[in-house]
Amino acid sequence: MKATIFENTFLCNQQHVNELIFKLSSHYIYVIVLGRYTFVTIRYLPHVMVSCVECLSVALLFEQVLLSFFGADAAALLPRGPSLSDFVRIYRQQCSDSPAKQTRYIVSIMEKAEMLRDTDANLLPALLRLQELVEDNVSVILLSEIVWDKFRPNTGCFEPLLLHFSDYSKGELQQILSKDRHPSYSAEFYSSYINILLGVFYSVCRDLRELRHLAALNFSKFCEPLEEGKAKESDTHKLWRNIEPHLKKAMRTVYLREVSSLQWEKMQEMEEKEAGAVRGLSAHTHVELPYYSKFLLIAAYLASYNPARTDKRFFVKHHGKIKKTNFLKKNEKTSNHLLGPKPFPLDRMLAIFHSVVDSRVAPSASIFSQISSLVTLQLLNQASHDDQLDAPKYKCAVSMDFICAISRTVNFDIVKYLYDFL
Q: Which residues form a coiled coil (predicted)?
């Protein structure tokens, strides 16, 4: 009966679960779990989950274990700067005060166990013999993504039993994630959504918790055509076209938690509104921007996305023969458009501007005022402090499509001057 409960709880892990249950029935149970799993818990036994990352000191670890097993009174008995012997003494004292609890198995789970390598040398060997030291039915499970050979103590210790959890396959992830379906929709509909999600994210992410988070985060976007009456559950292709750009944006935030899910959704809505505004702006840029402002923006884009060492190649007539391989000697060429715009000094932008503009333009207050206007329009971003009057730096804040639209209005082929497209 217990095995059946575990199998229903941990899908696609029946073999590992049965092995774990078997080992928990013996007197000496030391299991170290290796692989991609950072969350394995014994739901139907008294247990404590201890994160070795959060427990910055041995005292915090001892306090967390005693607090979870015996309560705040037991944890308060620890002296300041407790030693291992203090922990064992208090633990045994609590067991003697409550002898009935000794008849039950209790489990202490140490997450990110590799952090124990940086603690006292005797802590890890003691945890592996904890049942013997405290004379209680306690098992210690160490969770880690590092193989045991990487942090076995040099002084030797009791060898734990090794239990390796392999990665879930795509089919297993499909089966597990499909169990989280929304009650308002059919199982087939949610399963097709999970299939689309895994088709996008499986190659870059196989963590069950992260995929579950992504599935919950993007499901409302997947259902939008249904709620608006534009599609049916069977219109898989139409639903896919609606969710595809949203999933591509979500790929940039895989494993990141810089903002909450609600904030992320609001940010996506704002980006969509801003994208619409930019699309509207791009259709009228040739009207709204003055002639020289367009060339200033082109010069700023070239300065942001071309390495400074290539300026001679592009803008000096008699620069000599420069082979492209000379630029790739030290390391492979990385696309500057993937790295993003880089800051550049004002002098460099003006030098490029005078090289690409059709006629000779003398530096004047009008040119500098147009640069200020580009900053005000947020087409340029100031990358230096406001009080830095000597050689201020800027970044170009427009996209490739935007600058190509600008270039076409002045008959300038910007692609010929971009190092990424050589």
A: none
